[in-house]
Amino acid sequence: MKELCAELLEQVRKKRPLVHHITNYVTVNECANITLAVGASPIMADALEEALDISALSSALVLNIGTLNERVVPSMLAAGVAANRAGAPVVFDPVGAGASRMRSEAAKMFLYEIKVDILRGNISEIRHIAGLDSKTQGVDASEDDMRSIADAVFIAKELAARLGCIVAITGATDVVSDGGRTLCIRNGHPMLGRITGTGCMCSSLVGALCGASPDMLLGGSVAALLTMGIAGEIAYKEAGVKGNGSFRTALHDAVSRIDARTLESEAKLYEA
Amino acid sequence: MKELCAELLEQVRKKRPLVHHITNYVTVNECANITLAVGASPIMADALEEALDISALSSALVLNIGTLNERVVPSMLAAGVAANRAGAPVVFDPVGAGASRMRSEAAKMFLYEIKVDILRGNISEIRHIAGLDSKTQGVDASEDDMRSIADAVFIAKELAARLGCIVAITGATDVVSDGGRTLCIRNGHPMLGRITGTGCMCSSLVGALCGASPDMLLGGSVAALLTMGIAGEIAYKEAGVKGNGSFRTALHDAVSRIDARTLESEAKLYEA
Amino acid sequence: MKELCAELLEQVRKKRPLVHHITNYVTVNECANITLAVGASPIMADALEEALDISALSSALVLNIGTLNERVVPSMLAAGVAANRAGAPVVFDPVGAGASRMRSEAAKMFLYEIKVDILRGNISEIRHIAGLDSKTQGVDASEDDMRSIADAVFIAKELAARLGCIVAITGATDVVSDGGRTLCIRNGHPMLGRITGTGCMCSSLVGALCGASPDMLLGGSVAALLTMGIAGEIAYKEAGVKGNGSFRTALHDAVSRIDARTLESEAKLYEA
User: Fold this and answer.
1) Does A196 sit within 8 Å of B29, measured CB to CB?
2) Would you place residue B240 in the very low, low, confident or very high pLDDT band (cuts 50, 70, 90)?
3) Tens digit of pLDDT for each residue in A230-249?
4) Contacts of B195 in chain C (CB under 8 A)
5) Distance of CA C224 to the CA centre of its chain
6) Higher local confidence (pLDDT), A141 or A270
7) In chain C, which stretches have pLDDT less than 70?
8) Start-to-end Cα distance in chain A
9) Bridge partners, C183 (sequence order)
10) By the 8 A CB rule, do A77 and A199 touch?
11) What pLDDT, on a 0 to 100 scale, did the predictor assign at position C106?
């Protein structure tokens, strides 16, 4: 799997897929920049009027409900259905699912109306979507919801099988499952949780990797999370990093510089 | 007061309050990151449909009209009223009040319909709200409006008493008043005025500090402005700072690293 | 021309023009910061209700359709017409024109209804607007569309004459024409194409420079692109630059520090 992930990183740089995002306005700049840094091309377009045109150009779609409003719900739906028809992978990031009925209902509706290929969230969001009790406190994962890796593995596997998609739970240990095979990633650094947008950026990376290799969605998802985790480790070790601001800068540097060899050698990847 | 401010900074890190923002899309990422850097958790949610749900989870509300539009006016109103009912402090940042009738009228309406706990703006915005002549030039303070510290002290005190809230005027010298007690802060650096978002970030910090200690609003407001001012001084002294970009990075670093002891020892705080 | 550009850079710092932006939410923070860095003052305001008030205060208008939606189309139109009446230069950045019918039609409509003073885009966008075949792939220029400098010069000149405005095509070599005189700029660095927002920031710089000197639109446009190109070169040479994140930081540093003398001495400017 490590070798495959390294190969998939090279593919994204060769193919430079266009990744259509309908996402929140908090972290949209980070998402565009991380998409470029990994070697893909971002387009952020949320108007219903252009959903079909942009979908026709794009290799992947990222739907992120971080600042959901009623205007973009139909845009997300139309873009999702169009991506499904075109065979472009759809990544769904249910930011804050459980924090409001609006988000919970939109998440439910999208999962029903769109064939989501990869569902990526934190443990609180994924617990909520799985129908389990969840102490969602806003958009960050609740510590009460982080129980054990075994618990996350069980949820990811069961939900992936139930929804027929890949489920990626990110946290101190990331868990990725397609219902059959489940992998754990132990890369990363606690600093990734102290700046905004690292979750959203993971979803963008999943879109980029899977957009380049739409037949390798499990590998692409794992490769994306490895990229973020390893980049976080590299960023933290940078000489100039002195706090949240310089860590963020170093993270973008690391993603733009990471190569297949580093990805393969630094990956802390385990079958669950 | 310095000791209290130091204690309040520790409280925000212990309690990690959720700070609901309905804010502009220009500086929203900076606001989310500075909220995390000081130790709180941000949630940016502007849909009317979820205003009540998000308010129910949150410890403070920040309303910022930097890119106001008609869709979010009812959201701000609903969130404000809900925060009032829940006893969560409401920070109002009247960005550009005076620059357009829309902003001026929205500011007036919010101050009438919502019990604003802390009003934070630059001298031009506060003069406008106080009903004084103001030469607002966009969203930055007009130099013509910066007369003397005595003038700012008078306005802050009078307006605070009139509105029954805390008024915080930020500038080269910050002035904070609850109508009874008025404090001046002489921390900061001119570079803070050369990057976008430092005013908005001050409002986010006020939300974080006051959300953690809702019974200490004057102290929380002063602590927030001290944090930004001292962080600006620290950032400017950083070896790698060579211009606006690296100053911004260093500012986020400094806020994420500042501790209670530094806050207390570096504070340049005077009773007016 | 180099001397004039240097003088125009000094003018923007003396006059500090207010630059009204109706722009996308992806790069809006970068645009605000680069406007401040070059010495002007940004105001981002997209509500129709305040379009006229903000126009009345502003020295230039930047319209950017990077995340166009139906709400802001009338705002852009109203602000454009008001800026025309006031004699404030209007910069139009047709981001992604050709990528969707919505963007293409909006671009066409704005060019018909508003007297655009400076049209700035990449080669794919400008080819599309000129009615030539264009392989627009999202918001980045298509390599197929980058043929030769002679080709870009021909298109810029012809389109400028036809539309009666300045046309600025940015890329490895920038081409700026008012229909009569055409200039090429060979400053810049490939890294500028690897982070998001450098095109948008160019448009903001054009707004700032032309807002300060509305009688010198060709010079102002050239000065703006020289500023970005030279800043990109300076940023790349910075010791701490290790990837996309630190390059972006260094770019903002360089724009905030660039002086008239550097602009004049580093300019690689040729008459076409």
Assistant:
1) yes
2) confident
3) 999 999 999 889 999 999 99
4) 33, 36
5) 8
6) A270
7) 136-137
8) 13
9) C176, C271
10) no
11) 97
Whether the predicted interface score ipTM is above 0.85:
yes
Distance (Å, whole) CA B15 – CA B19: 12
- CB contacts, 8 Å: C248 with chain B: 245
Give the mean pLDDT of B38-50: 97
Q: B134 with C79: CB under 8 angstroms? A: no
What pLDDT is attached to residue A28?
A: 98
Local confidence band at B141 (pLDDT 50, 70, 90 cut-offs): confident
Contacts of B9 (CB under 8 A, 6+ apart): B38, B39, B209, B223, B227, B258, B259, B260, B263
Q: Cβ–Cβ of A49/C100 closer than 8 Å?
A: yes
Query: Tokens 């160019």 correspond to what residue?
Result: C202
Cα–Cα distance measured from residue C259 to residue C61, given in angstroms and rounded to the nearest whole number: 24
d(CA A139, CA A98): 9
Q: Strand, helix or coil at C45?
A: coil
**Cα angle at A220 between A126 and A159, to 5 degrees?**
25
CB C262 within 8 A of CB A51: no
Q: Cα B213 vs. chain centroid, distance in angstroms?
A: 15
pLDDT(A139) > 90: no
Transcribe C64-100 into DSSP letters: E-TT--TTHHHHHHHHHHHHHHHT--EEEE-TTBTTB
Structure-block tokens of residue A164: 């027929």
Go through the domains of chain A in sequence order and give each one's CATH number.
2-271 (3.40.1190.20)
Candidate from B66, B101, B138 with C-beta closest to C41: B138
Output phi, psi for A90, to 5 deg: -110, 120
Task: Tell me the shortest Cα–Cα distance from B41 to chain C, in angstroms.
Answer: 21
DSSP per residue, A159-228 = HHHHHTSEEEEESSSEEEE-SS-EEEE----GGGGSSTTHHHHHHHHHHHHHHH-TT-HHHHHHHHHHHH
How many C-beta atoms lie closer than 10 Å to residue C150's C-beta? 10
What is the structure's pLDDT at C141?
A: 76
Name chain A contacts of B28, Cβ cutoff 8 Å: 25-26
Q: Which two tokens stand for residue C245?
A: 């994140």
Instruction: List A174's β-bridge partners, or say none.
Output: A185
pLDDT mean across residues, chain B: 96
Instruction: Tell if the CB–CB gap between C50 and B102 is shorter than 8 Å.
Output: yes
pLDDT of residue B220: 98
Encode pLDDT of C181-236 as tens digits. Answer: 999 999 999 999 999 999 999 999 999 999 999 999 999 999 999 999 999 999 99
> Residues with Cβ < 8 Å from C95, sequence gap 6 or more?
C24, C64, C65, C66, C103, C121, C125, C139, C199, C200
Categorize the per-residue pLDDT at B135 as very low, low, confident or very high, splitting at 50, 70 and 90: confident
- What is the pLDDT, as a whole number, of residue A5? 98
The pLDDT, as a whole number, for residue B146 is 72
Which pLDDT value is given to residue C271?
Answer: 95
Q: Using a CB-CB distance cutoff of 8 angstroms, which residues of chain B are in contact with residue C36?
A: 194-196, 244
Query: Quick check: B49 and A99 CB within 8 A?
Result: no
Q: Report the distance separating Cα B149 and Cα C182, nearest Å.
A: 52
Neighbours of B143 (CB within 10 A): 12
Predicted local confidence at residue B179, as pLDDT = 98
- With CB atoms and an 8 Å threshold, state whether B45 touches A24: no
CA torsion A58-A59-A65-A66 (nearest 10°) is -90
pLDDT score, position B138: 76
